[in-house]
Write a structure and sequence with these properties.
Helix content: under 10%
Strand content: over 45%
Number of helices: 5
Largest sheet: 5 strands, antiparallel
Number of strands: 34
Low-confidence stretches: 1-19, 391-400
Mean pLDDT: 87
Distance between the termini: 51 Å
Shape: globular
Length: 437
């Protein structure tokens, strides 16, 4: 890892906060010219902090959406840098050469140190709500990876592998740890050769983890499985897990005639069931398939229409929990559509993360004030969609106790919830934006 240089800037969001609104993170200058191009990848479960790379990996950023303050680090490492996930304390995890964490509060970068052995470095991936458990992959000789975790600042520990019988056609070494539930109960990753199927590790009574090769119950692993005709999934790749640990979001492969289709798959960890979204989708007019990217605690999820984020898609979608037909992201959230419907339609936008309650959707995309004007500059920006989901006083009260104070957007103290967006201060000092009806 080479030396990094940190810049601090206060960014103004380009629209005021209200339900079904979109904010573009910008100083008001031109990204890539007057300011960095932000590519948001992670949003904290409480919706306060964001993180991601800048300039296609030229550095990274972390930001506080409440104060509109963002910190940029410019990387000199030839491999670039990226922050992938961020907790409720503003600590993000990723890499800058080796794996790192970066704290918004202290403005300090910490290198993730592998245990003794033939490890090159750790690739940081995700962390719990309070940052007490980190997950990632130990990178060894030949750059083979092995899923691992660190608990309470302790040494990184490899996660167990399934048996060769459970690995089936994926038998072999190697694994990854990609995601973790907010409380640390579930870790999600892959096992075996060829970046094998989605796998769960579940915390046991000793505080360690046991592997659950749940994929064997749903994925075609043998010729006998194929002949039985009871399973339709030929592959299962992990995409994320809801903060409450209930929903594991995957992209699955199913046979469609003589070809294969990419479809979202949601595994319910409590019910041990899968929902395979293999219905023909009205919004998928070219039959490209849906590629999911993030899920919230209710089971709402987002993604792209296509098989490859950016340049390999023809739009973005929003799937409401319980629905079988997805909506275009532009249709579901018209305020977003006003700014991004055209770049979304040509595959230049991707939603990347959701707050736990689904009230905020993070993403980035190619943007211009006027795409039809050849002289208008175009650049990547990070956006935040306020969906209006999960924003009720009842939900806030249940989670954190009675609100300590309620304010309007212009700072006036209120006796009760007003119409539109309210600022709620909770007894623990946290601040939430709540929609009043």
């Amino acid at each position: 890892m080479k030396k990094t240089f940190t810049l601090i800037a206060a960014l103004a969001l380009c629209s005021t906060a209200n339900a079904d609104s979109v904010k573009i993170l910008s100083t008001g200058g031109t990204p890539g010219v007057d300011e960095p191009q932000l590519m948001g990848l992670g949003i904290s479960p409480d919706g306060k902090y964001v993180c991601g790379p800048i300039e296609m990996g030229a550095g990274y950023f972390v930001g506080n959406l409440d104060t509109d303050e963002y910190i940029f680090a410019i990387s000199e490492d030839e491999e670039g840098s990226e922050l992938r996930h961020i907790d409720n304390n503003g600590v993000a995890i990723g890499y800058n050469g080796p794996g790192i964490t970066y704290s918004f509060a202290t403005r300090e970068e910490s290198v993730l140190t592998p245990p003794e052995g033939d490890w090159k470095y750790i690739l940081g991936e995700a962390l719990t709500n309070d940052g007490s458990i980190l997950v990632g992959s130990l990178v060894g000789k030949g750059f083979a990876t092995y899923a691992a975790y660190s608990k309470d600042g302790g040494e990184w520990t490899q996660l167990p592998m399934p048996s060769d019988e459970d690995l089936g056609r994926y038998a072999g070494q190697g694994s990854t740890a990609k995601y973790i539930s907010g409380d640390g109960k579930y870790i999600v990753g892959t096992v075996g050769n060829n970046m094998g199927p989605a796998t769960l590790w579940i915390m046991n009574s000793d505080g360690g983890y046991d592997v659950d090769p749940f994929y064997t119950r749903f994925v075609i692993m043998t010729d006998e499985d194929l002949a039985a005709g009871e399973k339709i999934l030929f592959g299962l790749s992990p995409i994320g897990i809801s903060n409450n640990g209930k929903y594991l979001l995957c992209n699955g492969t199913v046979a469609s005639g003589e070809s294969f289709s990419l479809v979202p798959v949601v595994y319910d960890t409590e019910e041990d069931t899968v929902k395979i979204y293999n219905e023909d989708q009205n919004i998928d007019e070219y039959g490209m398939g849906l590629y999911a990217s993030a899920i919230d605690d209710k089971g709402n999820f987002v993604g792209i229409i296509g098989q490859q984020p950016l340049y390999g898609s023809v739009g973005c979608f929003y799937m409401k929990a319980g629905a079988t037909q997805a909506e275009s992201l532009s249709t579901a959230f018209p305020a977003y559509g006003e700014k991004f419907s055209f770049p979304e339609a040509i595959g230049y936008v991707i939603p990347t993360a959701m707050s736990a309650d689904g009230s905020l959707i993070l993403g980035y995309g190619f943007y211009s004030e006027d795409f039809y004007d050849d002289e208008e500059p175009a650049y990547f920006v990070t956006f935040v969609i306020n969906t209006g989901e999960g924003t009720s006083v009842d939900a806030v009260t249940t989670a954190s106790g009675e609100p300590e104070a309620i304010y309007s957007l212009d700072g006036k103290k209120l006796n009760k919830l007003g119409k539109g967006i309210n600022i709620i201060r909770m007894p623990d000092g946290s601040v939430k934006k709540v929609l009043g009806k």
